[in-house]
Every structure is written in C-alpha cells, then in structure tokens.
From TrEMBL:
Signal peptide: none annotated. GO terms for cellular component: nucleus. GO terms for molecular function: dGTPase activity. The lineage of its organism: Eukaryota, Viridiplantae, Streptophyta, Embryophyta, Tracheophyta. It comes from the Eukaryota. Gene3D superfamilies: Hypothetical protein af1432. This is HD/PDEase domain-containing protein. GO terms for biological process: dGTP catabolic process. Residues 102-264 form the HD/PDEase domain.
Amino acid sequence: MGASSNEELNFSSNFNFASSQDLRFSKQIHDNVHGNIYIDPLYLKFIDTEQFQRQVSLSCTSSSVVVVVDLSLLHADCKYMYFVELRDLKQLGVAHMVYPGAVHSRFEHSLGVYWLANEAVHKLKTHQGMELGIDHFDIQTVKLAGLLHDIGHGPFSHLFEREFLPQVRNGLDWSHEQMSVDMIDHIVDERRIDIDSGTIKKVKEMILASSKFTLTKSSREKQFLYDIVANGRNGIDVDNFHWMKLSLVCRFDYIVRDSRACAVGCNFQFERLMETMRVLGDEICYRAKDYLTIHKLFATRADLHRTIYTHAKVKAIELMIVDALVKANDYLHISSHIEHPSQYWKVGMLDDTILKTIETAPDPELKESRDLILRVRRRDLYQFCNEYAVPRDKIEHFKDVTAHDIVCSQKSSSEILNEEDVAVTNVRIDLTRGRHNPLERFVKMGHPMQFLHLHRTSLSIPLLHFYHHSEPFNLFSLYAGWTCCLCQYPFFQGL
C-alpha cells in the first residue's frame, strides 16, 4: 500500500504544538502509520497509571523532556486495564488467520483516531476558526471522543456484537458504542478523573452519533464536530457510503492501517482531504477537484471488503468461532459480562484471549467448543460450498437466506441435511448511497463557498463505470460443517 516512508502519512512535522500542550508534559508514541503521536496529560489519565509512568524511559533534549512510550510495556504495567485491554482486541478479528500481518489491535487504531481527530479539528480551526468559533473545549472533546470511541468494543471485530449476542441473547438491545459511553462513566468515577461533566456529556454524544442509541444533542451548534469521529448523518459504512458527510478520522485510520497490515495496496491519500476540507452548512465538505481522491476512498473500501473482511476463509473461521462461543456460553456465561462496565473487561472473557481460555480448560462441558477451536487451529474449516450474488432488480425485496431455507429446499435422497449441517452468511455492501451517484455534489471554493453539482458529463469514463457498478450488492455464501458439494443444490436452482 502507499509509500513506505513516514513522510507520506506523518503529520507531526506540520503540527504547531505551541498552540496545544507543552511537550514537557506530553508523551510521544511512534505509530507505524502516522509517525510520532503526542498524548497530552488529560488523555494520559485514561491510558496511564502512576505505576506505568515509573517504567517509561526518558529522552532529554535541551531544556525539554519527551517521554517515549514503549507500547509493549503498556499491557503488563497498567493497573487499570480498561483502555489497554484494547491491545487484546485485534482490529480485524480473525482475519490474521488468513492474512498473517493483520495482527494490529484496537489500541493502535484508537491512538490513530485520537491523533487524526486532533489534526482534523486543528485544520478546521486554522482555516475557519473565527467563522466556526472552534475553541479549546471543542478540540479537547473531539480528541477524547476519538481516543475512547472503541473502548467498549467486544472481541473478534463485530462478530461478538452482530453474530454471537443475537444467538444467545435474542432481542437484546446492545451496542459497543453504548458500552463505550458506559465505560467512560465508569472510568471517570473509578479513577476520580477531574474533568468537566459537560465535556464528558459531549464526548458521549459524539461516540453515539453513529448508533441507534444517539443521545439528544446538548446543542444544535457545531454539528460538524460530530462528523469527525462518528458520523450520525451519513458515515462510510458497509451499508451506507456518502461522499460529503464522511465520518472522517475513524475510517481514514482503519482504511490505511488495514491496507498496510494486509499488504493489499492503498493509494488513497487522506491528507489531501483533511488539508482542503471546509465546513459549509454545518457539514464537512470537499472541493470538486478532489473527486478523484473520493473515488479512491470508495474503491479502497470496496477492495478491503471483498478481499479481506468477507474473504471466504475468514467467514468460515468466524462461523466456527461463533459456534464455539455459543456452545460455551451456558457454562462460561460469556454474555452475562456485558451487563455492567465493571464486569465487561474481565480478563480472558471478553477479549480475543477467550479462545485460549476455552482451549486450556479441562471442563467436559467445553469439549464441543474445544473441538471446534482445535479444528480452526488445524485448518479443518467449514467447507465453502457456493455463493449467490443477488440480481440488482431483486435486492430491495430480497430477504436474508437462512440455513432453514436451504434445508427446506432439499429433495428426498439418501443423505438428509439438518440445519446444524449448514451455515449461511449474508453480505450486503453499499458502496455509495443506495442508487444515488456519490460523486455529484461537492463544494465550490470561493467567497462565499457554495455547493456544486458535478454531473455525469463531468466525470471520466472509469468513474462512470465505477458508479454504475456500485449500487447495493447482496451476496450470500453457503458453508457446511463437513466436506460436501452443494453447488447444484435445489435452492440455488430456484433463484
């Protein structure tokens, strides 16, 4: 992906720290994506402890002291594990079992989002600070929201929340965003962090902006700030892409970080968008001349979904992990730990280490789960049997396919399938905004700035081709727990 030098992805040389915190009171972390990241004292209260700070090394330069943090020390020496437990949550779940380089964690991602949130709000302040009224409170809030936005995340990427919990706690209204805000309250109370209640309230509003648990905003002013970390109006998600209302820094960080870790290639340069973005009509907007960069953003996101996130082997492993967790839940009561923040981060239960907990447990009640995990280790995976791309004219009315649908379509034969024999995964990717062209409305720079409609006649043929093929895409894949071939199964013939 991209250039390998720090110059392409490093903002540190362009940032004026005179307007921020004194370097003497900041810690410096070298990130493999963004270069040097500086963490100010307030945010260290959510990361560090007194015990940890006695372990860091000091590098003295003239009259200032820069504290260089060795990330490998954080997990071992922190007494309060709430934030650093993110190191035990791989950003891409089980993808590292297919892409060995995909071992980066939500810890690195959270630091990256913190840093890019800082950069984004400072860029806006530099160009439109007087007009927008961006103050220190706004900067502090956006940075803290970026740092803590994933602190309530469960194990194995979104598998825990979207696949496991619905099977063991059907009807439960739970999200990692809601747990993140609960965790923030718990940490502030537990560690007695001296922080303004208004700041915490707005941080929680920003984190929940992209979820169904969205809080009533305390103010209708500066709504553009809510789009920096988590876009509540239109984010770049699997189901909903939008060129103009980008959920900036979270997506920017993971697109670059995931691409680099998996070596799939990435020529999308978010620096250009961050440098030229402006606020118009309380929305973060981009220049019309940047439409090629926006196109690369969509294309890179699509590549990540098709080649990594929904890779056939990755999905097979995910299905097996879910089955193992479901079978272990009655004995380990895994799902019971999501009720309260004080229990949520119980070591070895709600992070990726739960697999090792199950593997090494001698309890006979966990035998089925152990056997499934052993199959994963030995690469004896559920077999991919077939997939079906839903025609575009049927997408709007097409319902998710279930194992029950497959089994009910079978004809009488010597071998009869049960629902336990097959598993179906449904994937829906919307690269733009449903059937709307994402490259038709931008902002025209000038005095004053104004919205600009970029018609199809203004787009190159490759971009028109991209738009034509980026309507909602549905795909379901069929897996079996044993080697078989269902490619000619009657269900597929009837579609």
